[in-house]
Specification:
The protein is an alpha/beta fold. The protein is built from ten helices and ten strands. The protein has two domains: about 200 residues, Alpha-Beta Complex (2-enoyl-CoA Hydratase, Chain A, domain 1), CATH 3.90.226.10; about 45 residues. Bound molecules: coenzyme A.
């Protein structure tokens, strides 16, 4: 039994759903919630049958309406750095998680909430979802990786426009920009879509999925050469039993039975 107070974790063998659950504050990320998100990924990393994770918001109104503004009054130049670094550490853990993490955005994804979604590998949204980086309204900038990840996803010009105007965009606009992968009618449909994606992924070789994530992330890591990383990780896959199984299954015209070995 996990002792979380601001998030909920449901696990059903291959899929885990994390719900950020502070609906009274529109699921705003205070430091405790960030700590719990950090811990829950440590818990999930021990689960070897896991094939996908979904992060969503509790209640109907918000995914996450940003960092918790109540905590801002105590922020100064000195502790701001520590707060940002901590957020970066947690979101980077999500981005580098071994199985795909899907943000299921119901309602507002603002500031740190949008950045949380950006750190996930894919984003689904309900029709009523709204995205914004409104930090400039408070005299600050996105501090949990948003300036980098938003530009990676939608390009520099549009990312700058959204961050400088603090404009709030709809799910359909986010879809057009490539910020979200799919828009669903309601939360149930969105969670079904997320499960469907995870089911599809769970039929593939786990090492191949893990290495796709690692290789793609290397593109955005200045300390790595993405092409060299791809060669390394491709070779690593070729040393697995699942590679032999996948190849044999194709030649024998049957479905592969991947064991994650
Ligand atoms: N931090 C802390 N509390 C927050 C919050 C945040 N980021 N966002 C919303 N809340 C709280 C509100 O203070 C309010 O609390 P109250 O009921 O005790 O007054 C409650 O959540 C509901 O929000 P409310 O503003 O009444 O709802 P609304 O429907 O009128 O507006 C938003 C919704 C999301 C547009 C508005 O809450 C908002 O702009 N939030 C701040 C977004 C933001 O700037 N985030 C980035 C921070 S860097």
């Amino acid at each position: 039994m996990n002792n979380f107070s601001n998030i909920r974790l449901e696990e059903n063998n291959k899929e885990a759903i994390i719900t950020i659950d502070r609906p009274k504050f529109l699921n705003a990320l205070n430091q405790k919630t960030l700590e719990e998100i950090d811990s829950v990924f440590d818990v999930l990393s021990e689960n070897n049958t896991l094939r996908g994770v979904v992060i969503t918001g509790g209640g109907d109104k918000a995914f996450v309406a940003g960092a918790d503004i109540n905590e801002f009054l105590n922020v100064d130049r000195d502790n701001a750095k520590q707060i940002c670094e901590n957020g970066h550490k947690v979101f980077s853990k999500i981005e580098n998680f071994k199985v795909p993490v899907i943000a299921a955005v119901n309602g507002y994804a603002l500031g740190g909430g949008s950045e949380l979604a950006l750190a996930c590998h894919m984003r689904l949204a309900t029709k009523n979802a709204k995205f914004s980086q409104p930090e400039v309204n408070l005299g600050i900038i996105p501090g949990y990786g948003g300036t980098q990840r938003l530009a990676q996803l939608i390009g520099k010009g549009k990312a700058l426009e959204l961050m400088c105007t603090a404009e709030m965009i709809s799910a359909d606009e986010a879809l057009n920009l490539g910020l979200v992968n799919y828009v669903s009618e309601n939360k149930n449909d969105m969670l079904s879509k997320a499960s469907e994606i995870i089911k599809t992924i769970s039929r593939k070789a786990p090492k191949a999925i893990e290495n796709v994530i690692k290789s793609l992330n290397a593109k955005y890591d200045e300390s790595k050469d993405g092409y060299k990383t791809e060669i390394e990780l491709f070779s690593e896959c070729c040393a697995t039993k699942d590679f032999v199984e996948g190849t044999k299954a194709f030649l024998e015209k049957r479905c592969p039975d991947f064991k994650g070995e």
